[in-house]
Design a protein that fits this description.
alpha+beta; Immunoglobulin-like; 2 domains; 4-stranded antiparallel sheet; 19% helix
């Protein structure tokens, strides 16, 4: 009887050790995979087939320090657990590809429509909001984004674009030609918002008339994070109407 009980206990101990060893092996393999680095290279071309310079490389939706060079090529090391690599440009929009172990991933904005065009395919009631990296449905936006639809005729009555922004977005004030969002400050004083018109950084938007504006998106707090230190005081994204 005693031998049977001892044999049973030994069997339970062996089973426990096997389970413990299996768990350890799975954890070890997973840890090794996450530490493994994969080097990815590629070329980024615009709709005309020309190289795009200084395009931002994104990994799993996060901005990296890598940019494309004068030939439109890039090289970046990513974790083995990384799933997607994206390209953000101010002129052409954004593209994203699954990594799937590939060491070379090229992007051609002339083949696949940029993310900005996808915004036009959203269903009614799911208007897009430009967060600076991609377009999201308004109902899914959790960060601080205020959007002004410049196509609304009521905005034509505003005297200037600054008047248009301050009346429609709370927590915004004007200082000269600068826009201050939520009283952003650092050790040196107020920090103006970054101004971007049709994908181009500008220092002044006073030349813009409300009737020529298609949309304005004001990014506050974490919604401006992808612009790095430039977006510390928030970001004002302006899209003008296309002239026929």
């Amino acid at each position: 009887m005693m031998k049977t009980q001892n044999s049973c206990n030994e069997m339970k101990l062996k089973t426990f050790l096997l389970i413990l060893l299996s768990v350890f092996c799975v954890y070890s393999i997973s840890a090794q995979k996450s530490k493994t680095k994969l080097t990815i290279t590629g070329t980024v071309l615009d709709a005309s087939g020309n190289p795009i310079v200084n395009a931002i490389i994104m990994v799993d939706g996060e901005k990296s320090n890598s940019l494309t060079n004068s030939k439109g090529t890039y090289k970046i090391k990513v974790k083995g657990s990384a799933q997607k690599i994206g390209i953000f440009t101010f002129g052409s929009g954004i593209m994203e590809e699954s990594i799937d172990g590939r060491a070379e991933i090229n992007f051609n904005f002339g083949i696949t429509a940029p993310q900005q065009q996808k915004n036009q395919e959203l269903e009614p009631g799911d208007a897009g909001v430009n967060t600076g990296y991609n377009y999201l449905k308004e109902k899914n936006v959790t960060t601080q984004v205020n959007k002004i639809d410049g196509t609304d005729k009521k905005y034509a009555s505003y005297r200037n674009i600054y008047d248009m922004i301050t009346r429609e977005v709370s927590g915004v004030k004007i200082s000269g030609n600068s826009i201050i969002i939520q009283d952003s400050k650092d050790f040196f004083g107020s920090v103006p918002a970054l101004l971007v018109v049709d994908g181009v950084y500008v220092d002044d938007i006073s030349y813009l008339s409300p009737v020529n504006v298609e949309s304005i998106e004001v990014l506050k707090g974490t919604s401006a994070a992808m612009y790095g230190s430039r977006g510390y005081g928030g970001v004002v994204l302006i899209k003008t109407k296309i002239k026929n």
